[in-house]
Amino acid sequence: MDGEVHVGDMVQLPSGLVFRVTFAADPARPWRVVTSGGYWRVSRERREGGVAYFYGGRTAPMKLSLTDAEAVAEVLNRATHSPRLLHLTASMRVVRTHLRRHVSIDVARDLIKRAAFDMQAGPLAPETERLVARLEKATGCSIDELARHAEGWPV
Fold it and tell me: How many structural domains is the chain composed of?
């Protein structure tokens, strides 16, 4: 469990149980190990008050041994968003604004790949040129780099 861990990663606990990282760390609201009857859970304070339990991609809060609960809390308190997903989030926002409608990841990916292809083929249409400029500004990478990142986005 050493090394980088990103939202979306699957992590194996000492007991062999596997869970999905569904949150990035928030230093203002760290995950803590709490006891609940004969088992342990991982929780943190909600922004709006109260407590949120960690579900690990399941439909109910995880019931863990102390060792597993400590491991889950440690992983969650250092989890970050993947750079690939940060590009996805920024790109989706730009494409949604550009098209003035909700779009799927597939539509955004196709539009980005098409813009990268068109850019290599010759001069861009003014509307596509504006889209490319906005995407590059929002993501901090070129349209060609963004098209390569888009290949790894979820389907």
Answer: 2
